[in-house]
Give the backbone structure.
Amino acid sequence: MAKDFTVTPWEVSGEIDYDKLITEFGVKPLDDKVLKRIEKHTGELHYFLKRKIFFAHTYFDTILDEVEKKHKFYLYTGRAPSGPVHLGHLVPWIFCKWLQDKFGVNLLFQIPDEEKFLFNDNLTLEDTKKWAHENILDIIAVGFDPKKTKIFLDTEYANVMYKHACRVAKKITYSTAKSTFGFTDSNNIGEIFYTSMQTVPAFLPSILEGKPTHCLIPCAIDQQPHFFLTNDVAPKLNYPKVATVLCRFLPGLQGMHKEGKMSSSVESTTIFVSDKPDVVNKKIMKYAFSGGKETVEQHRKEGGNPDVDVSYQYLTYFLEDSKKLKQIYDDYKSGKMLTGELKKFTADTINKYLKEHQARREKAKSQVEKFMMRG
Amino acid sequence: MAKDFTVTPWEVSGEIDYDKLITEFGVKPLDDKVLKRIEKHTGELHYFLKRKIFFAHTYFDTILDEVEKKHKFYLYTGRAPSGPVHLGHLVPWIFCKWLQDKFGVNLLFQIPDEEKFLFNDNLTLEDTKKWAHENILDIIAVGFDPKKTKIFLDTEYANVMYKHACRVAKKITYSTAKSTFGFTDSNNIGEIFYTSMQTVPAFLPSILEGKPTHCLIPCAIDQQPHFFLTNDVAPKLNYPKVATVLCRFLPGLQGMHKEGKMSSSVESTTIFVSDKPDVVNKKIMKYAFSGGKETVEQHRKEGGNPDVDVSYQYLTYFLEDSKKLKQIYDDYKSGKMLTGELKKFTADTINKYLKEHQARREKAKSQVEKFMMRG
């Protein structure tokens, strides 16, 4: 059967079949067994786990083994700075903060400013650096512990990163990189090398601690190919294999079937975290794909379809109250709740989150240096 | 006709036809016209130029144009640290010092410690760093002006180097790198990226000065393929094209026809700059390929062949006195000078040079920090 979706670190499109992706990427579903083990340590499960927003993993059990041995582990995530932060970017960061709080662990936050430069004809290194500094405010606004979080730009931390990237690169042939990422002869040699830089932070815990130290990477599933290479290299350099915990993509306003994940480059599809309430209201009212019926009468009679409704999907990401969420699902499905009402509720929920985020972002401006790590 | 020699940045072998290499590499001979122009500015020509040890160039005339416009230019050369320094390594450095003295210009001295690591299975980054620090003493011992010379390791200056290497890498496709260096799918992705790092110092003069500033690279001709890529990229990044001035390879003790250039990895072929007089004597007496005849009687009668005699070849590199050199050439050719006498004279000449070098190397130990540039 022909594949009707594409997921690579540089392209996500089509209506994604996440079950198929689990098989294709050779990752494991976050099943009840591992969820129960997590819950044993965290006391409760984050709603991202309960709702299968984080749905797959590699080696998460190894991290739990470490926890049970009272060993330290590190979190590592990243943000490639090519534009403003949108709602979708927040998802792994929010989960990262929860993991940091629950396990009391260090977080390495990579800003690969050279990645977006290398892979995008229209961006200069000055552009990506500017976006890096903008995005860092949004990262800090998520609420990470400044004592346990180090944020770094690849180009500013290169005195440390580059030499370790060379150690990684020596273990990756062009043949392997080509088959992993689909490179052709027309890719530039920076694109080909880049994956080495994305692997380094997975080994930094061991490097910084001076002993083998495990690393857990919360990220969207499109980043997994990098970390397959990481785990190909890890035993060759005597580092522990890294673990990943993988989330789905927040759909764009027009829905996953139409345009894949939310993307900064298409404004009508995207809610930016800097959007003011009236902008959020307008975008959701105007663009959010609806599972409702054509007329109020028909909707009342036949009910709507929350499973394809983008506003409802957003609630699964941003409404923590699961009882309320269930009620909305039922009411929309039965026709008791109209599309306009659902949209308003979603816009209000997002606006409440963003109001607090934007206030924390203002405060973050004076805290940047506490978080930064330079070479 | 099949080629019976190989010259790439990572392999030099066979009996090199330098005229053929000029055509193959698309460089220009250092002809009388450009030599006269150089002499106009330097007052005299270095004997490396008179003797065609430096025999080819690209864009040297552009550098002379700059000199005539009273514009600054920079020198850039390098040393990939994989072992101890031998006599052959000194040749471009000695010439670099002469150019620095004559033109009063800045020199950037790159130590690509990652290069040898990436291209050599048996070297760790710790090995190449150790050799870097050893080799730097020999570099300083050549006598560069500490006020006008900056030495840097790629891994230690990576905060500056890496971001500019990415700017270069974005302009080089894998296809171009492959055809320039003969890469295959089994090369590692660090090897493929590396040429970007070798290009950066050619652009650093413009970056450091904040305006277009020309750069002249004295080096052995095997490095030229890197600088072709550099000049492919230069106009795309608005930097001036770089100039190169290219030397032949000092033959190994057994002669170029036998083993190509002097190489640190084959001890019987090599005079290290740390060799003591008795070691130099022994190596030349025992290993230096001779152009003499089998018996003294035959040699007296038929004369020797200085053109293939390695001891004589070494004198062309290390005996500045051209009159004396001519006399030795004639005396050896006529049979008046015996092989043993020539070998002794060569060993004495080299030992005199090395004694002074070794004394300067001792003094260099306290001067390292004056020369180093870090990121």
In short: The CA atoms of residues 6 and 12 of chain B lie 5 Å apart.
